[in-house]
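Subject: Interface between my chains keeps coming out wrong

I've been trying for a while to get a sensible model of this assembly. When I model each chain on its own everything looks fine, but I need the whole thing in one frame so I can look at the contacts. Pasting all components below, labels as-is. Any help appreciated, I'm running out of ideas.
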Amino acid sequence: MNVAEFLQDAIVELKDVDESTLIPALTFEELELDSLDYVEIQLRIKKKFKVEITPELFASGQLKNLGDLYAYIETNQPQAAVA
Amino acid sequence: MDAGSRWDAICVGAGITSLAFGAQVVKRHPGARILVIDKHGVPGGYATVFQRPKAGAAFDCSLHKLSGMGEGGNLRRIFADLGLDAELGLKVPADYFEACLPGGAIRFGNGVDAFRQALHERFPHERAGLDRFFDEVAVHGRNGYHQFQMMDGTFEPDFAQLRYAHKHLKHVTVADALAQRINDPWLREILAATGIYVGGFPEDLGYLYFLHVVYATLTQGNAYVEGASQRLSDVLAARIVAAGGHVLLGTAVRKILSDDAGKVRGVATARGDFYADRVYLNAAPHYALRTLFDDRPALAPIRRKLKNLKPSRSTTTVYLTTDAAPADLGLASTETMIFASGADASRAARAVCDGDEACERAYWRDSVMEVTNYHALNPSGGRIVCLNVLDTMAHWPERRSPAYKLKKARALNVMLERLYAAKPGLRGHVVYTEVSTPRTYERFTNNTDGAGYGAMVGTDLSGHVFHHAFPIAGVHFLSAWVAGPSYEAAFGYAEMKAKQWAA
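Reply #2:
Try treating it as a single job with all components included. I did that and got this:
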């Protein structure tokens, strides 16, 4: 399962939304994540991909939409985890 | 200090989160120069004391209980990191609270085991529901309590539990969740009473967050700071000043200054402009967006999102002194919850709250009233007792108007009569009183609707992340509006922001 598939499953479970709506351009604003949702997403990413997503990445706007998040994880994933 | 001077960071508002943030930054980064600005004449925001020397009283505005002060508590760890535990005297009460019900009082010892046992004894027919409630506190309350540790990797949650909590506990109110678990209406009232610590009635608060609050106050150890909250605020402010910073009081911030590229430059005040690349707002976000920023299109989405961020309830408080030790007059517990005369009356009264009379009845008479016996915590501070009810600004007229004064007198009368009904020995021994209203709190803090606890943590939390992707770089938000109410949340969020300082 790739990064996008894993996160789409997690978000569908979390927000009870239609998977077809989870396009990369969808912003976290549009997803209406709450503070607890953010914590869980960060934890799931860390556990699955060994990538640290600090709250500041969301707060600063560096990660604005799903596409940003997928790309950040893929770029920062440790090589061993990718293999 | 010269206007126009340059700082490493400016904090707008000297509330407890600003002070905790500043003290943690200067400890981690010696040499960091922080300017804290507040319109009020003393630092601390709600964490302040006001003096009435003729009455021999120093009244604490907010320090009714610090949770997380036991072994393993979040606040205890942060206090230890800052060396505050050595500098501040801490008092640990023996009791949790005394519940005054029409049929008699129940005194609860401090700690989850004592509370649970007393409830089992008094409500044996509710054992199954109580066990379920305490299991949820132990699992989901604990997970919520360790949110910051989850993010920094020092606490590993069970994901199945998180999943269950998101699906079944986050979008249900305390009132509805307790109704599903507990049949006895008085037991529901007792279990829900701690919601007053975070500014919500049972129909306001989300159950999942409420479990977190119960876990914090019941299992993580409570303590009070000797010298009350002003002492804590003063010590933190002194740390900032000792490191080369400054706490500028009596000065309102008028505008946040930013450049055309959308980067913060500093702040404008009546004493001139001050400059920094980082500005931390310890102010209600509604107030900040309405007052402190120019009307630029980039802020429109934030303003829209703020509509989902509801303020917690405000309070009406009676501060009083007695002519003898309150314990000798029948008020022995450090904290007492006085319940309305009929179980289930509270929610029904609040549901039809329309007009002065109905609101006064609902909030002042038919909802739980919390009583803090400060004398039992610190006899040297005076014979001081505080009465608190949750309230709302909506039915309070403008300050200083004749109607306002009359309404204050009515509030005083209703709340004192409730106190005397529960503790008759106090009648005739109250020698000084003062009433604070939602208008008072708005005046001193600019908090939306005079909210005493920042944002309401209800069943819709989507507005709570309004600050993400804020369009002016270098602007950060502090305070209970983003962290959740209480000292632990304030210090925990301040710690998280202080850790990000070097980034």
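Reply #3:
Confirming on my end. Chain B touches chain A at residues 144, 147, 150-151, 153, 157, 159, 162-163, 166, 170, 208, 301, 305, 460-462, 464-465, 467-471, 473, 476, 496, 500, 503 (CB under 8 Å).
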